Amino acid sequence: MKIGLYFGSFNPIHTGHMIIANFVAYHTDLDKVWLVVSPQNPLKPSASLLNEHNRFHLVELAIQDEPKLRASNIEFSLPRPSFTVDTLAYLSEKFPTQEFAIIMGSDSFQNITRWRNYQHIVRNYPIYVYKRPGHEVTETHGATVKILEAPMLDISATDIRNWIKEGMSIRYMVPDNVAAYIAANNYYK
Ligand SMILES: Nc1ncnc2c1ncn2[C@@H]1O[C@H](COP(=O)(O)OP(=O)(O)OP(=O)(O)O)[C@@H](O)[C@H]1O
Ligand SMILES: O=C(O)c1ccc[n+]([C@@H]2O[C@H](COP(=O)([O-])O)[C@@H](O)[C@H]2O)c1
């Protein structure tokens, strides 16, 4: 089986993430997409991060009815910050019969040379890159790249957190059950 790995902080998961995950699951040769919740992105500050177990639960709520999507907490048991090369090595060892690919936006792909041991990643895992406005894919960085023309919703988790803090509605920006759970638990206030 071919599995696409979509890594992120998902702080919180939003409709932009879900459009991409579902598009890749149904419009490419990948059979499933795992949303891998990273406890700590090596290149992002941790100040506004909700506890990883809560972020993971929100991802589970968001995708609960979709058979091709799965939430993964595999990085919770690995060293912090979460270096993708370590996660990939762990997954390939744990699931030797599965084929793994990586899904990322063209903005992240532009920066992949800053990732730890990126040469190992690009040599061993195909990368499905969806275009984000303002970030052209001008080079492959040595990877086997598949470019995706996926529909885009221009929001970020930072927007969601700011709107919640300001008391603004996040309806339709995240699934209803995710918005309800965030509100009930006073997250991001
Ligand atoms: N609106 C969006 N559409 C498609 N992809 C997105 C969108 N927002 C983020 N992504 C991508 O999803 C992946 C996971 O992102 P992450 O969880 O860090 O979300 P984020 O919304 O960018 O977060 P933050 O605003 O906190 O930095 C990254 O590869 C990121 O580029
Ligand atoms: O391995 C690295 O060096 C590395 C550097 C930056 C980001 N990542 C991973 O990429 C995922 C998406 O990152 P970002 O910055 O695009 O939101 C994040 O969850 C990290 O685990 C990984």
UniProtKB/TrEMBL annotation:
Pathway(s) the chain acts in: Cofactor biosynthesis; NAD(+) biosynthesis; deamido-NAD(+) from nicotinate D-ribonucleotide: step 1/1
Organism: Chitinophaga silvisoli
Reactions listed under catalytic activity: nicotinate beta-D-ribonucleotide + ATP + H(+) = deamido-NAD(+) + diphosphate
Keywords: ATP-binding, NAD, Nucleotide-binding, Nucleotidyltransferase, Pyridine nucleotide biosynthesis, Transferase
Protein's name according to its UniProt entry: Probable nicotinate-nucleotide adenylyltransferase
Domain Cytidyltransferase-like residue range list: 5-162
Summary of the function given for this chain in its UniProt record: Catalyzes the reversible adenylation of nicotinate mononucleotide (NaMN) to nicotinic acid adenine dinucleotide (NaAD).
Family: Belongs to the NadD family.
Pfam families in UniProt: CTP_transf_like
GO biological process: NAD+ biosynthetic process
GO molecular function list: ATP binding; nicotinate-nucleotide adenylyltransferase activity
PANTHER family assigned: NICOTINATE-NUCLEOTIDE ADENYLYLTRANSFERASE-RELATED (PTHR39321), PHOSPHOPANTETHEINE ADENYLYLTRANSFERASE (PTHR39321:SF3)
EC number: 2.7.7.18
